[in-house]
Structure prediction request, 265 residues.
Amino acid sequence: MDYQDILYDETDGVATITINREDKYNAFRGETCEELIDAFNRAGWNKEIGVVVLTGAGDKAFCTGGDQSAHGDEETGSGYGKRGTLGLPVEDLQTVIRDIPKPVIARVQGFAIGGGNVLALLCDLTIASDKAQFGQVGPKVGSVDPGFGTALLAQTVGEKKAREIWYLCRRYTAAEALEMGLCNTVVPHDELDAEVAKWCAEIMDKSPTAIAIAKRSFNASTEYIRGIGAMGMQSVAMYYDSEESKEGVNAFLEKRKPEFRKYAK
Prediction:
């Protein structure tokens, strides 16, 4: 695949996948998802690769979720028609991160917001800069992740905190994310790459088969969430057709406060 939205590199057994849409705060569109899926499969089944790093271009954002400016487009990217329950293959992207038999490290150097926060959550490990920020925005823009983004979040940070994150849509510092278990470690911004390299080197010294078995074992205990998400995405697809959801997108694009309640039924 000729990548347009991402960068891909393999060095010393480490595959680094970078969302390369810095001008969009590394928000993803359909093209981005398709390329990420291809890259994860490319790295995940290459026996020479021992660990995969997911990150975003620049210093501002890891990923800020779905590109609202592309919301509702007939085409989701260069040559890709809509696919997946929501018109772009978010479910497939979430699945491939969990299913490849290699540890995936989220290198979070800036905003991990909305769908970006969910991607970081799905990665096996998260290493954050002290400048990173985490949080969800779905209910602010007429959206929600009814699968891994909610249920796995509750498994990770606890039920009460997960509900707070979704209901209030606040932003959390890297230190707060570390305290709640949303990331593994936080380092000064200029030490982030060295820390990621250190973790990758330690993983590369370990048995790849033992790690693959461990990853599948961890995933097995939360695999039921995939089914919950599949049902939930059907509801979200119908919700996106509602005036209430469209108000969130329109307000975001028009840079105004949404008026959800006048459309609620």
